[in-house]
Design brief:
Length: 308
């Protein structure tokens, strides 16, 4: 059975910790090198990753390609619409064919059931590059960013503001695996999937809800948000209106801990979920977070290939 990375729970807390530690070692070892130069040990030399995009992407697209180059391997980047997948070839047959041609597959898809089907029929590792349900690679980068900044994950106090979306689902999963607290501030009707919440709580994560944005961020060490309308999800004026009290702005950040950091997976909608002043402030770690997509995913790739 190949090692798939569809959700953080596929790896488990020990493997997540091992991946973060690996990234913490590998990242500084190549500081200031040309970005495409392979790491000294080139641990994935000769390996090829196929990446498939059914939805737009900047960070995921570039970071997986760069991660493979830095690991000594390479990537084939494909739009689903340009593949036979886009005109009706089945997921199962695509999985069978790609498994004969490449060493691993990453997919960004609109429906989590599709990645499960791909993983079922693939005989090589499959990695989730975002689905409607979850975005585990993003949260690996976020955890790396926090640990790199000196935060200890167990007992950490995070606040999430806004929509109960795919990114929040993976963050909730991480709270269970790494034993931290998330206070979710958002409007009724836009809560995350209760299944993720129940599993995280059962694993020891502390997941709380409030409709009061100030209560959500009170004393938080980390304040996180994301777009109010995710790709492929219904939006509309009613949703924007419901979300507007949860904008992360200077007044809200003033309620968080004095040294609290601001995180956002990007792309950001400045003036909607976050004010210009917060995302561009010294408390914002969004550019480290984006860069860390490369470093965290290198360790995810090493994990799926059994190197961690
Ligand atoms: N954060 C993230 O996944 O960005 P992209 O949509 O640009 O890949
Ligand atoms: N929740 C966002 C994340 C984008 C990286 C979306 O799914 O559109």
């Amino acid at each position: 059975m190949p090692r798939h990375f569809l959700n953080l729970a596929d790896a488990g807390g020990d493997a997540v910790a091992a991946m973060i530690n690996d990234a913490l070692t590998r990242k500084p070892a190549r500081r200031d090198w040309p970005k495409g130069q392979p790491d000294r040990d080139a641990p994935l030399a000769g390996r090829v990753l196929a990446t498939i995009f059914e939805k737009n992407s900047t960070r995921t697209r570039v970071s997986f390609d760069m991660a493979m180059r830095q690991l000594g391997g390479s990537a084939i980047v494909m739009e689903a619409g340009g593949m036979q997948l886009g005109r009706g070839e089945s997921i199962a047959d695509t999985a069978r064919v790609l498994s004969r041609m490449v060493d691993a597959i990453m997919i960004r898809t609109d429906n989590h059931a599709k990645i499960e089907e791909l993983a079922h029929y693939a005989s090589v590792p499959v990695i989730n590059g975002l689905t409607d349900q979850s975005h585990p690679c993003q949260i690996m980068a976020d955890l790396l960013t926090l640990v790199e900044r000196g935060f200890a994950l167990p007992g950490l106090q995070l606040a999430w503001l806004g929509d109960g979306n795919n990114v929040l689902h993976s963050l909730i999963e991480a709270a269970g695996l790494m034993q931290f607290t998330i206070r979710i501030g958002g409007p009724a009707g836009y809560e995350p999937d209760p299944g993720f919440v129940a599993r995280a709580r059962a694993a020891g994560g502390d997941i709380r809800f409030t409709s009061d944005a100030r209560e959500a961020v009170a004393g938080a060490q980390v304040v996180v948000t994301d777009c109010w309308v995710s790709m492929g999800q219904p939006g509309g004026e009613a949703k924007i209106a419901a979300m507007s009290p949860y904008q992360v702005n200077d007044a809200l950040m003033a309620e968080a801990a004095g040294d609290a950091v601001f995180m956002h997976c990007l792309p950001a909608h400045r003036g909607e979920e976050v004010s210009e002043s917060v995302i561009d402030s010294s408390r914002s770690v969004v550019w480290d977070e984006a860069e860390n997509r490369i470093h965290a995913q290198k360790s995810v790739l090493r994990w799926v290939f059994g190197q961690l």
